[in-house]
Amino acid sequence: MTPTSPSSRARKTSSKHPSPTPAPVVLPAMSKDEINALPVRAWEGPVLLVQDEETLNAALSSLDRQKVLGFDTETRPTFTKGKSAPPALIQLATSETVYLIQLTHVPFNERLAELLASPSVLKVGVAIGDDMKALGRVHSFRPGGMVDLAAMARARGVQAQGLRTLAASLLGFRISKAAQCSNWENPELTRQQIKYAATDAWVGREIYLHLLKTAIPA
Questions:
Q1: pLDDT higher for 26 or 137?
Q2: Contact between 94 and 62 (Cβ < 8 Å)
Q3: 17 inside domain
Q4: 115-147 pLDDT per residue, tens
């Protein structure tokens, strides 16, 4: 009988008993009750309200140097079917400051368009493509450097999709949505609106940084 070499035995064994493919890790979305049981957190750092062109240009000089910006927009709600208002507010969060650009006060200038088009400055948010399209109707530009947090989460087996559910599932706290349907075209935003808007941009950036550390299932 012809002797069998160790390498031949190994090949036969591996062909009969292939290594199992690891199952993807899936993080299910939390229920509303589970989310409501979590502690509430909000952005507690500095917020810069941008209400004139001088402040806008100074803000853009800082934002242009960033690598990752939490991004969101707010729009006055309309209650007529088929009608929508233009975005009234752009929120951009760095690690230190949240900038709230009130488009009811300042024009959407070319420098702002360049920032939103820049591929070297990442803008991260949920359903960011929809926000960019709405802004493109205010001022024509080609958005770049966009990261959709919902898509990024799905690629990592996270079933949660909205900003609130992603914050709960990944960061272990909930954010308030109490001011979501308020009038964002008010000349002066309320303290509640400012905190809400700043928190949305900040938490988007935090979710992105968390997801960067999360492996994509094989």
A1: 137
A2: yes
A3: no
A4: 999 999 999 999 999 999 999 999 999 999 999
**Residue 12 falls inside a structural domain:** no
Residue 154: inside a domain, yes or no?
yes
| Whether the predicted pLDDT of 19 surpasses 70 | no
**Structure tokens given for 43:** 């952005």
Neighbours of 191 (CB within 10 A): 8
Residue 1 falls inside a structural domain: no
Please give the sequence-ordered ranges of beta strands (E in DSSP) within 134-183, or none if there are none.
146-148
Longest dimension (CA), the chain: 93
Tokens representing residue 166 in the block? 């992603």
DSSP 29-42: PPPHHHHHTSPB--
Cα–Cα distance, 55 to 200 (Å, whole number):
22
Host domain of residue 159 = 27-211
